[in-house]
Specification:
Shape: elongated
Structural class: mainly alpha
Order of helices and strands: HHHHH
Number of strands: 0
Largest sheet: none
């Protein structure tokens, strides 16, 4: 007969799995953050600092957002000049997300809005 399921055994495996996952999600090193900021354009730096998003509309790490804000003060960038471009980017990203959801997760039935 095979091994029986044990909550105690499951708890040990769960803790080991959780530790493995958390160690794999380690934060970025200061060198990686600097390298990431150095590769970003002025628009991307302003976008990251103001919205917390990168140029693909994915969330940036909190440390990268802080570094982007610091880079803005260092370079004395005028992000207000990029405001219209940032709004256009956000609207386009939102429309693309809406099309994706409608395509892959269609609502059916009476309650479709």
């Amino acid at each position: 007969m095979g091994k029986q399921f044990s909550i105690h055994r499951f708890g040990k495996h769960f803790v080991v799995l959780a530790l493995a996952l958390l160690s794999g999600c380690a934060s970025l090193t200061p060198q990686q953050i600097t390298q990431r900021i150095d590769t970003m354009s002025d628009f991307q730096i302003c976008l990251g600092a103001q919205t917390g998003l990168d140029n693909r509309a994915f969330d940036l790490d909190i440390a990268v957002v802080a570094a982007a804000k610091e880079r803005i003060t260092q370079r004395k960038l005028d992000c207000s000049a990029k405001h219209d471009e940032i709004v256009r980017f956000l609207v386009t990203s939102l429309k693309q997300e809406q099309k994706y959801r409608e395509l892959y997760f269609p609502r059916t039935g009476f309650w479709r809005f």
